[in-house]
């Protein structure tokens, strides 16, 4: 089994998921699948909206050439939340009571799969209690570690909390050492986002079904990349780029980055580290033009890709964005480095202008596709100046159709390091190497950026 699709609705039943799979197996595209679902609902089928999204994910996995299975989490957990008492008469709240047979079945299936898609209805911008229980179990059993993870959500209205619910799932999966992906081209957002109120109404939302299809496709593709490296020869060199985007006048972050590189270089002889100090570079602001990306290619013979890369319409000779673009293209793994400090006055902030300018890189058919990206953050305990650096990195760069892993985070107090981030750094290097091999081993159709939405902007 390759990919496990989990339905997180309390209305879900395994019987309906089995019927949905048979329905999905009869189709070759979302339009056909939606039509069959709508016809079944008219005939009295009791599919819940999450189960219908599971079918869209199952279709995607099959068309990718993988194996998949839908699993109803409602079978796993009790329908009520009750405090229980132990043998000593003490109360234990929320003990995640589960059906032991169903739990063992789930754990076996998870152990066999390379990726997981969690489908959940939206409640007040968050996932269902059933989906939340699954995340709690992941914390207890550690079964998300080294899995590729994506999320799909369904709410009663457009902009009804689907994106926040998906992001909560993604961030917690990261905390349990999963790799996360979005829904891929043409939109490359946070995951599947669908509209559905009463049972079966999500079948009318082909856009929502399509984004769910997309996230399952991404989980499958990245899963194949990771799996392919088990039988291939390992790459000799992996290039790690650390992009310093926020620092203070003493260059505290830059010095810390250099210190960590010095420490890890001796134990990672096949790793090439490159630090790009955006604080010292001149970056013009994005002008929001309709010509993005600009005509022409970057004139740099050192570009590792065999394809030409588009440029930005901004052609000022002292604009350094083309240098950053070259390093991004050459890198196998990219850490976006930022500083969270107490002193708001003593901070140099290049992050936002830089992320704005990467717009043309994204529009150039997602030229960072399937690279590994995460954040590197140096925190002062109690600091509030840039405490969301990791969150911003995930929400921004996942739109570049990349793969993301756990952040590298370092905590200090009064100049003393309280929490090291070197183990997370080592894992980042490991995953960058695996994905580099995977990109060579798995032939994927080049992604295509297509402008979509409303407002007339092209």
Domain count: the total is 2
Oligomerization state of this entry? Answer: single chain
Q: What name goes with the CATH superfamily of the largest domain?
A: Flavodoxin domain
> SS-based structural class?
alpha/beta
Over the alpha carbons, how many angstroms does the gyration radius reach?
A: 23 Å
On the 0 to 100 scale, the average pLDDT is 89
How many helical elements?
13
Quick one: biggest sheet? 7 strands, mixed
Query: Unreliable stretches, pLDDT < 50, 5 or more residues?
Result: 89-93, 300-304
Query: What does the overall shape look like?
Result: globular
CATH architecture of the largest domain: 3-Layer(aba) Sandwich
Query: What is the CATH topology classification name of the largest domain?
Result: Rossmann fold
- Count of individual beta strands: 19
The end-to-end span amounts to: 41 Å
Under CATH at level 1, the class of the largest domain stands as: Alpha Beta
Helix content: 25-40%
Q: How is this structure best summarized?
A:
By secondary structure, the protein is an alpha/beta fold. The chain has 13 helices and 19 strands. 37% of the residues lie in helices and 19% in strands.
Commentary on this structure:
It is a single chain. With 458 residues, this protein is of the alpha/beta class. The chain folds into two domains: 3-79 and 97-228, Flavodoxin domain (Rossmann fold, 3-Layer(aba) Sandwich), CATH 3.40.50.360; 238-441, 3-Layer(aba) Sandwich (Rossmann fold), CATH 3.40.50. Helices cover 37% and strands 19% of the residues. The strands form five sheets. Strands 9, 11, 14, 16, 17, 18 and 19 form a seven-stranded mixed beta sheet that branches. Helix 1 packs across helix 3 (49-63) and helix 3 (49-63) crosses helix 7. The protein is globular, with a radius of gyration of 23 Å. It starts with a strand and ends in a 17-residue tail after the last helix.
């Amino acid at each position: 089994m390759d990919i496990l699709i989990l339905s997180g609705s309390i209305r879900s039943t395994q019987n309906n998921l089995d019927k949905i799979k048979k329905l999905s197996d009869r189709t070759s595209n979302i339009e056909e699948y939606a039509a069959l679902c709508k016809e079944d609902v008219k005939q009295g089928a009791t599919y819940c909206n999450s189960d219908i999204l599971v079918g869209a994910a199952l279709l995607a996995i099959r068309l990718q050439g993988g194996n998949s299975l839908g699993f109803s989490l409602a079978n796993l957990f009790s329908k009520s939340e009750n405090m229980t008492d132990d043998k000593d008469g003490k109360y234990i709240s929320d003990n995640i009571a589960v059906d032991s047979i169903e739990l063992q079945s789930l754990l076996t299936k998870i152990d066999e799969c390379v990726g997981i898609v969690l489908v959940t209805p939206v409640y007040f911008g968050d996932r269902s209690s059933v989906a939340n229980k699954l995340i709690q179990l992941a914390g207890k059993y550690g079964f998300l570690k080294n899995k590729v993870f994506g999320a799909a959500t369904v709410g009663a209205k457009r902009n009804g909390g689907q994106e926040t619910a998906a992001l909560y799932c993604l961030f917690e999966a990261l905390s349990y050492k999963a790799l996360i992906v979005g829904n891929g081209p043409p939109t490359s957002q946070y995951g599947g986002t669908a509209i559905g109120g009463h049972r079966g109404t999500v079948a009318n939302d082909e856009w929502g079904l399509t984004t769910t299809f997309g996230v399952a496709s991404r989980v499958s593709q990245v899963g194949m990349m990771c799996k392919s490296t088990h039988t291939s020869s390992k790459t000799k060199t992996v290039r790690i780029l650390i992009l310093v985007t926020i620092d203070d006048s003493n260059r505290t972050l830059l010095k810390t980055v250099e210190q960590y590189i010095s420490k890890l270089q001796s134990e990672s002889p096949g790793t090439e580290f490159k630090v790009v100090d955006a604080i010292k570079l001149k970056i013009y602001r994005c002008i929001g033009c309709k010509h993005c990306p600009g005509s022409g290619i970057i004139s740099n013979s050192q570009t590792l890709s065999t394809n030409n890369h588009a440029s930005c319409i901004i052609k000022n000779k002292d604009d350094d964005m083309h240098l950053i673009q070259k390093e991004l293209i050459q890198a196998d793994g990219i850490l976006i480095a930022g500083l969270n400090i107490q002193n708001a006055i003593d901070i140099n902030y290049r992050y936002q202008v830089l992320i704005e300018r990467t717009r043309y890189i994204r529009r150039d058919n997602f030229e960072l596709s399937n690279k590994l990206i995460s954040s590197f953050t140096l925190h002062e305990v109690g600091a509030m100046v840039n405490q969301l650096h990791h969150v911003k990195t995930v929400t921004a760069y996942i739109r570049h159709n990349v793969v993301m892993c756990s952040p590298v985070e370092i905590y200090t107090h009064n100049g003393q390091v309280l929490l090291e981030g070197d183990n997370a750094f080592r894992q980042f290097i490991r995953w960058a190497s695996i994905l580099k091999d995977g990109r060579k081993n798995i032939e994927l159709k080049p992604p295509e950026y297509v402008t979509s939405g409303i407002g007339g902007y092209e």
